[in-house]
C-alpha cells in the first residue's frame, strides 16, 4: 500500500538565502548608523559630562525638556524651521511631478536625455559649491542678479542678508538642486503605465489633458502618497549644510533653525544633553507626522507604508 509522503517545504531563509545575503549590508548599515546611536538619547535625561560618561552622569529626568519649552528662542527656531520646511514642501514636492510629466511628453530622445542630464547635475554638487554659487549670483555689487536689477533702474538687494528674502533664497536653491533628482522616481512610475490605457482613451476621444487627469495622475498616485508620507517624517528637517552655509547674524530671526541651533549650542558650547533633548523632540514630532499621514492615506483608500 503506497503512502504519499509530501516533501517538506524549505524555510524561506533557505529558499531565498541569496536574497537575504544581499540584505546584510543594508541591515548592518541601519544597525550601525541608525539604531546603535539611538542609545545616545539617554543623555537627554542626564546632565551629561564627557568625563563621567553616560554611566556616571547624573539623571535629571525632564529638566532639559522643560528648559527647551521655556526658552524664548525655542519658539522662534521652531516657527522658522516649520515655515521653511512647509515652503519647501509646497514648492518642492509638486515640482518633480510636473517636471516628470513634461519630460514624459518629449518624444525627441536626444533632447529629452540632454534636459534630464542638465537638471540632474545640481544634485551631485555639494552645498558648499551651491552656496558659493548663490552668494556670487546674489552679490549686491557684482552678482548678475543685482546687475540686472540695477539695469532695470532699481536699487540692488542684498538677498542673503535681507530677512524678507532669505527664506526665498533657501527654497529656490533647494528646488534648483533637488528637483531633477526627484523626477527619477516619477519617470520610473510613468514608464510602468500600460500604453493600452492611453490608446483606449484616444479611441474614446480624450485629449492630452484628459489622459493626464484620468490615467497618468491616478497611476502616479500610489507613488505620490508614499513619498508624501516619507516627506512628513522630514517636516522639521530643513537641511543643516544649506542653512549653515548661507546663514549670517543679520537673518538669524528668520533663518536660525533646529539644525544650526543644535550645532551652535550643542557642539560649540558643549550643551550636549540640552541639544539631545531638542533632537529627540524633533524625532517624536516626525514619528507622529508619519503615523498620521499614513493613517490618513489608508482612510482615503491608498496604500500606506504599513
Written account of the structure:
Belongs to the binding-protein-dependent transport system permease family. Helices cover 68% and strands 1% of the residues. With 306 residues, the chain is mainly alpha-helical. The protein folds into two domains: 17-61, no CATH class; 71-299, Orthogonal Bundle (MetI-like fold), CATH 1.10.3720.10. The chain has a two-stranded antiparallel sheet. α7 crosses α10 (166-191) and α15 packs antiparallel against α16. The radius of gyration is 25 Å and the shape is globular.
**What's the β-strand tally?**
2
**Can you name the CATH architecture of the largest domain?**
Orthogonal Bundle
> What is the number of independent domains?
2
Helix content: 55-70%
Q: Quickly count the helices.
A: 16
Characterize the biggest β-sheet.
Answer: 2 strands, antiparallel
